[in-house]
Amino acid sequence: MNTQNSFEVLLDEDALILDFNEQACELTGYAKNEVMGENWFMTFIPESNITKMIDIFVDTFYGIGSDNRYMSEIILKDGSKKMLNWHDIIIKDKDDKPLHVHSIGVYT
What we know:
Beta-Lactamase; 5-stranded antiparallel sheet; alpha+beta
C-alpha cells in the first residue's frame, strides 16, 4: 500500500489500523509502528466528528449506505488538523463477508 500523494489506511472491523502507508506517516507525523493496532477514530478523528465518522464506517463496512466518498478532517501528531477527500473500498473474503476497509484520503 504505497500510492504517491494519497493517505492510505487499512482498518479491520473494529477500526484498528492494520496498515498505514508512507504518505500517511509523512502527513501525520507518526511513524507506522506508533499507529499499528490503534483505533482509527480515537487516534485521528476530532472528538466532535467521531459519531458521524463511526456511522459512515459501519454503514460502509456492512454495505448499508452507498456514500463511500466524503470529506473529513484528521488530527495530526502535532495537534493540527488536515481535511482530506476520502474514498473507502471494502475488502471481502471469498464468501463475500467484509474483512477490511481500505480508506484512501487525497490531500493537497
